[in-house]
Amino acid sequence: MQVPFYTPTREYIQNKEKFDHAIQKVIKRGDFILGEEVKLFEEDICKYTGAKYAIACASGTDALVICSDILGFKEGTYVITTPFTFFASVSCLARNGSTPIFVDIDEDTCQIDVEKIEEILEKIKAGNFIHNGKIIELKNIRGILPVHLFNQTCDMDKLMKIARNYNLKVLEDGAESFGIKVNFEGKEVHSGTIGDFGIYSFFPTKTLGCYGDGGMIVTNNSDLADLAKAYRVHGTKKKYYHDYIGYNSRLDTLQAAILRVKLEYIEESIRKRENIAKIYEDRLSKVKDVKLFKVDKNKGRNVYYVFNIRTEKRDQLKNYLEKNGIGTSIYYPLPLHLQKCFEYLGYKKGDFPISEKISNEILALPIFPEMLDEEIDYVCGKIEEFFK
């Protein structure tokens, strides 16, 4: 049996008429750049997430770069973030000239360890924190960039208290957390709507994914929203009059039309993901050499964008599954502090042991709403077979 890690074709076939109609409507109208469907999709996102403002752009990466620029994550500043994430979470800082200060993750959840953020800030406040041979001053710490990974968010209650205490900006990287709801200050809110800015990615594999690249910026601050709208179109508020050095980053109208179709049944898609995850949890929790990550289901609603397991025999298992026709992926094989492009930061192997350990053990299994019961059973069966 062949089980793909992900496939977009089944979803298209199931809803072909709707997708074709949405695409044809845009083509007939011809408003390909910031057309009607983009505006309507931004309104849809506000309704779904509860954010006051939504600004569509060309990718989740662009969303991070634009927000980092607006929040002043630039030359001479430092931003606290995690080394265990996708490249874009940190490249957005480097591109704008800011320097990341990494904090290790919690081993059970892979979220940034918020307690360690406070420890570092206390050291900086006391003048006792050295980064790459230099004593860092508190006045140069500009913000925190938490990354919501693997079906849940980091502890935003604690993180926002820290940010307020130290007057720091917060940019939530919610690239893979669309649909996640979290309890924050006694209320259930959507991930990405808590900090100064939040961003989502609509890369095809995401819980809400388009047929190409796409991203979204959300905020509850009208001034920040106005800036984001200008920055995505070359820094203009009025055509050919440039107030800022902006970007060319606009969500295609065709992609917005596709995403609006998908948004109609996203709750059904999330329920299907939850059902698949439950089967995985029930079956694989009984396999001795497999560890499952903890997902606190009391803290909010999860969407199971990915389903990761841990094993010390990760590479052997991955090879075995692929030989048996099962697609897998590794998020992430090398933490960012060990990436060649970030050598200039001065980190070395052993600086973030939990991130390094997880990178050697983590494996993502197939999970997408159209996955068949027999495919789930086959994946579980092959994992059980391998460990026998």
How do the strands of the widest beta sheet line up side by side? 1-11-10-7-6-2-3
- Alpha-beta content class: alpha/beta
Shape: globular
Q: In terms of per-residue confidence, which ranges show pLDDT below 50 for 5 or more consecutive residues?
A: none
Rg, Cα atoms, Å: 21 Å
Task: Provide a descriptive summary of the structure in words.
- The strands form 5 sheets. Strands 1-11-10-7-6-2-3 form a 7-stranded mixed β-sheet, sandwiched between helices.
- 44% of the residues are buried.
- It has helices at residues 9-14, 16-29, 36-49, 60-70, 88-96, 114-125, 156-165, 222-231, 253-264, 266-284, 314-323, 353-361, 373-387; strands at 53-57, 78-81, 99-102, 130-131, 134-135, 141-145, 169-173, 181-184, 187-190, 197-201, 215-219, 236-238, 241-242, 291-292, 300-301, 307-310, 362-365.
- The radius of gyration is 21 Å and the shape is globular.
- With 388 residues, the chain is α/β, with parallel strands linked by helices.
- Helix 7 links the parallel strand 6 and strand 7.
- Helix 2 runs antiparallel to helix 9 and helix 4 runs parallel beside helix 5.
- 39% of the residues lie in helices and 16% in strands.
- The model has no long low-confidence stretch (mean pLDDT 97).
Brief summary:
The protein contains 13 helices and 17 strands.
